[in-house]
Amino acid sequence: HRDPQAATVQLQYAGLGVPQTNRHNAARATANALKAWVVMRCIQIKAQDLAGIPFVAGARLPASYTELPETNPNARLARLVGQTPAPKTSAPVWWEWMLTQRYITGQMAAEIDWAGTPTTGEVAALWPLTSSALKAVPTDGGVEWWKRFEYGRPDKPRALTVDRVFYGWDPAPDDFRQPWSILASAQIDVDVAVQVGRGGDDHGDACG
């Protein structure tokens, strides 16, 4: 790979090797969302709908929407994220958790347990990480987006290398590495959303 000249340059001043400060307070958003049952119910419905879709892996994509894709139920990827992503954790529960994290905070993550050599060996498990306790440390150049991740209590974070974290985020329009939360984009306190359910009996309609 050739190093980009500008794409991975820090847009926020945080100092080299310092975790970026997300403009969206993930911990506060999570706490507020848990208080607003209408918001959480909407998120739950959307997350469960997606989590209920079977995950399949195949040799290639179908040529058109009329063609059934070739699938291999014994593929490692299908068994990992389609059956048991982590010990004693079903795929629907895992996906619902991950999607809920992403809807609320704009990011989701799991710690990768490698059965062999990292990046080349087989992934044994994907342990869910709480998004509000995760901080990403951006690079300031090169081909990588992140230098490392930090997870845990603010006074005692645990450093994780990039090859130990499965990380997904919704990029902000003005900074690709900033997580962009759907709730934050509303520019209102999430508690206000409880008013949505007062217009009728079927609160599921408010989820849109």
Give an overview in words.
This protein has a three-stranded antiparallel sheet. A three-stranded antiparallel sheet has the order 3-4-5, with no helix packed on it. Strands 7-8 form a two-stranded antiparallel sheet. The protein contains five helices and eight strands. The longest helix has 15 residues, at about 35-50. Helix 2 (about 35-50) packs across helix 4 (about 90-105). The chain is of the alpha+beta class and about 210 residues long.
Provide a count of the helices. Answer: 5
Unreliable spans: 190-206
Strand order of the largest sheet: 2-1-6
On the 0 to 100 scale, the average pLDDT is: 77
Number of strands: 8
Cα gyration radius (Å): 19 Å
Structural class: alpha+beta
- Gross morphology is globular
Q: Into which percent range does the helicity of residues fall?
A: 10-25%
Distance between the termini: 42 Å
Strand content bin: 15-25%
Question: For the report, how would you describe the main beta sheet?
Answer: 3 strands, antiparallel
Secondary-structure element order, N to C = HHHHEEEEEEEEH
Task: Write a brief caption for the model.
This protein is of the alpha+beta class and 208 residues long. The chain is 25% helix and 22% strand. It is globular.
Question: Which features characterize this protein?
Answer:
5 helices, three-stranded antiparallel sheet, alpha+beta, 25% helix, 208 residues, 22% strand
